[in-house]
């Protein structure tokens, strides 16, 4: 909650951070349920208000019993449908965790179609209950039931549409193809967002840039994973305090309590009134949690894809086709890579310094686990070498170099694991010539 307190205290200064925080809340199921419940209450209030302005002939066109029957149908059906939907969600969550990887649980829990459907069902249930109570209290009398009936019909129509979308969604929800597509989608989304704002809009902190000895060290207040930075408000706080902030803990990295996560370097224009709280301010803008998330962390998405492929290659499942599909998806994401240190645009947050993405780490996150577990499967190794060969032609020299290093390593691993000589020859035909020359030259 430190992040929330810091954001609220600077409401006017950090609207972008507030919008981001609102977006995070919107991914929570309870928020959508509360919003739909509020809409139900507002709809009943509007129905009551509109009913006073309608002529008596139109108000009496529909009897109160007709509205009561519709409300009874909604109240009886929505509770059962909501329970069924929750059961489906939990079942898919458990089966996906067992069959694919437990790291998928956040995607399943935050699935927007599922959340919207549950919110619609619960909102309709709340609407029906409150409407029935108001009918019993005489707020909606029989002579003013026309607007209530019309509003109830609209709610029923919305429920039917939500149910149809839910049924169509269930056709693929939790399937392997849909799951890998979702992981690739969110990984690609986070990767593109990161590359559109290189180093999250901060200055690239390369190996040549040294932190001055006069820097103040910001240490982690708890043990966990770096989940995200609130870079917009952190940059403004750094500017107000007259410092540069060097963030040494990358998003997704694991830190222990007391580990250095950032450094504050005075710039000579510090505001002494805020110096005492500077380290706490910086610490509050670096979110630490017990699990990694997909926000600002494309490496985590690549790792999850690799875990899905690795699980498919286990002895009990033995599904090399899934591993081949994942190789294609990982290569498609990595093909988007751009060198963050060579951006022509000035940094948006010039008081912040962030480590750029390392293409070697990206390649290892995506291909490392599946390459190890599929070392004895020639079809997997052929597709892996084919994908790495294409990444070796990447416009960015750093990505091309990382792909070449990985191709050499995985060729050695596969050649040592394959016991059938014709399979080794097939692997050689699928491997780039420069890789073969480098491997054979070393030997």
TrEMBL record:
InterPro entries for the chain: DUF2254_membrane
Organism (species): Litoreibacter meonggei
Keyword Chloroplast recorded: no
Pfam families in the record: DUF2254
Coiled-coil regions listed in the entry: none
Keyword line: Membrane, Transmembrane, Transmembrane helix
KW Membrane (keyword) present: yes
Transmembrane residue ranges: 29-50, 70-93, 114-134, 146-168
Superkingdom of origin: Bacteria
Protein name, UniProt field: Putative membrane protein
